[in-house]
Specification:
By secondary structure, this protein is an alpha+beta fold. The chain has 3 domains: about 80 residues, RNA-binding S4 domain (Structural Genomics Hypothetical 15.5 Kd Protein In mrcA-pckA Intergenic Region, Chain A), CATH 3.10.290; about 80 residues, 2-Layer Sandwich (Pseudouridine synthase), CATH 3.30.2350; about 160 residues, 2-Layer Sandwich (Pseudouridine synthase). The N terminus is likely disordered. Helix content is about 20%, strand content about 25%. The strands form 3 sheets. Strands 5, 6, 7, 8, 9, 12, 13, 14 and 15 form a 9-stranded mixed β-sheet that branches. A 4-stranded antiparallel β-sheet has the order 1-4-2-3. Strands 10-11 form a two-stranded antiparallel sheet.
Amino acid sequence: MSEELDIAEDGDLYEHHRIVVDKGQSPLRIDKFLMARIENATRSKVQQAIEAEAVLVNGLATKASYQIKPLDLITVSLPEPPRDDVVLPENIPLNIVYEDDELLVVNKVAGMVVHPAYNNWSGTLVNALAYHFENLPTTRNGVGRPGLVHRIDKDTSGLLVIAKTEIAMAHLAKQFFDHSIERTYIAMVWGVPAEKGTVRANLGRSLKDRKVTTVYEDETIGKHAITHYEMIKDYGYVSLLKCNLETGRTHQIRAHMKYIGHPLFNDVTYGGDRILKGTTFTKYRQFVANCFAIMPRQSLHAKSLGFIHPKTKQKMFFECELPADFTALIAKWEKYVKYEM
């Protein structure tokens, strides 16, 4: 991702980004502006691109100190052509829970990116799908994402439905749009929330870090998002929850749980990778560190998925077990509660 701004010493350049500055934009250095607009771009990479004259403002080379103005046209060009429409088939094993002529349901492992993007052109679920299946459909704007109607984060495990036909793609996409898809996640969070609860809060990209989703209490900003949760087990310092999505926004559960003061256990992006509840004793700190080592990712698993089959119109429902790292984490907290608290 930050590699997207690597500039070769010679050769042709291909336009990757074309940005028209908003009418209401206040003066801001162009390097800072591009850091905010291009995902995972570092300041040094942006400045290197500017020095290589790969960044143009209104068709002219610029300097990193240039203060952008409303309606400026900024283009960023790179040595390699854009690859959003290129999917390289890779022989990656898939855990297929169900398959018929219209669709398949996959249990994605944690650590697998769903679709190719900067810094992740290979090893993704889409690369695997391209190898195992031919001519998967795409949505109108889904170039390079064959079969995908939804996704889950790289370090979240669990179920995804994949469309194999245009009809299946359209029907499933409409169910997601209508929020009629049933999705249940298992999450371990810091602290002990109420036995049951619903979080209704708009979500959108953070203005400080575009990789982070944040809550906006101003209802005119972001997208409407609703998460229902229910307690499965209270471990004193952490809790195991069942979360049901009424909407499906980026990082929805992770952002909503942080918003109500209960970030997911070991969620680096949302502050769950440090001790937020518990004692200051060395033994407890070591216990938590061991838990982080057992499950070095956010504690979130897409456990169940329900939808109407696009062809038969029958209700389909699938569940998958928690992966080994999650079950080991739960077992460790069970033992701690029984013998240490």
